[in-house]
């Protein structure tokens, strides 16, 4: 049920998208390892899309993060962007609860390990996966209202070299689904 006019052009490229998230009851599938919250809902939400390199993807992530007043839940594979780091530090200083779940392989790298250590020192909640599978998610939920997702890793190379995309949505029901997925991510479970 996607609108015949999904693209709306404005200050950035904006998109109106209908989402259908259908996971149903979690029946075992070959090599399946995750239990996801059940969802069978269609969401029609206003959103914005940006691309990298140099297409404003990083700026869009920072812009939406800075709207937080209560909490930010992040599940991320790559996180080395100084601009994102500064936005997260500013939020923590303003009293916003920032909680990050990150991949163990990426978080062992020098740049990401250092960034996560700085965030922990600033009293942000940082949890690193301890399982062999990748935590390859790239999403954030801001105040149960906004969702940031897409292929965009929150890294300098993603902004400057890689072809990636980031989508943001102002959509509380979609945010609820992503918050449930964020809650389901455990450091010791695949």
Description:
This protein has 190 residues and is α+β, with helices and mostly antiparallel strands. It has a single domain (7-24, 36-184), classed as 2-Layer Sandwich (Endonuclease, Chain A). Helix content is 29%, strand content 31%. It contains 6 helices and 9 strands; from the N terminus they run βββαβαβααβββαβα. It has a 9-stranded mixed beta sheet, with helices on both faces. Strand 4, helix 2 (82-93) and strand 5 form a beta-alpha-beta unit. Helix 1 runs parallel beside helix 2 (82-93). The longest helix is centred in the last third of the chain and has 13 residues, at 172-184.
SSE topology:
Layout: E1 7-9, E2 13-22, E3 40-52, H1 57-65, E4 71-76, H2 82-93, E5 97-102, H3 104-107, H4 110-121, E6 125-128, E7 138-142, E8 146-149, H5 156-160, E9 164-170, H6 172-184
Parallel strand pairs: 4-5, 5-6
Antiparallel strand pairs: 1-2, 2-3, 3-9, 4-7, 7-8, 8-9
What is the overall pLDDT average?
82
CATH architecture annotation: 2-Layer Sandwich
- What is the helix content? 25-40%
Q: Give the CATH H-level superfamily.
A: Endonuclease Chain A
Terminal CA distance reads 33 Å
Rough outline: globular
From the 3D structure, determine the CATH topology. Answer: Endonuclease, Chain A
User: In the CATH hierarchy, what is the class?
Assistant: Alpha Beta
| Proportion of strand residues | 25-35%
Spatial strand sequence of the major β-sheet: 1-2-3-9-8-7-4-5-6
Structural class designation: alpha+beta
Describe the oligomeric state of these chains in a short phrase: single chain
Radius of gyration: 16 Å
Question: Could you say how many structural domains there are in total?
Answer: 1
Describe the largest sheet: 9 strands, mixed
Low-confidence stretches: 1-32
Order of helices and strands: EEEHEHEHHEEEHEH
Total helical elements: 6
Tally of strands: 9
């Amino acid at each position: 049920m996607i609108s015949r006019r999904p693209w709306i052009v404005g200050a950035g490229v904006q998109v109106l998208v209908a989402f259908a998230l259908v996971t149903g009851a979690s029946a075992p599938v070959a090599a399946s390892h995750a239990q996801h919250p059940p969802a069978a809902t269609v969401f029609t939400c206003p959103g914005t899309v940006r691309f990298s390199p140099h297409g404003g993807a990083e700026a869009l992530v920072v812009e939406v993060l800075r709207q937080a007043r209560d909490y930010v839940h992040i599940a991320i594979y790559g996180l080395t962007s100084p601009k994102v780091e500064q936005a997260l530090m500013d939020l923590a200083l303003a009293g916003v609860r920032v909680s990050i779940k990150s991949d163990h392989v990426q978080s062992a790298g020098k740049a990401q390990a250092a960034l996560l250590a700085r965030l922990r020192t600033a009293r942000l909640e940082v949890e690193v996966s301890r399982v062999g599978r990748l935590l390859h998610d790239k999403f954030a939920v801001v105040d149960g209202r906004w969702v940031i997702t897409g292929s965009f890793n929150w890294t300098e190379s993603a902004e400057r070299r890689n072809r990636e995309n980031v989508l943001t949505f102002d959509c509380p029901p979609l945010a609820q689904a992503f918050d449930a997925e964020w809650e389901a991510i455990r450091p010791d479970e695949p």
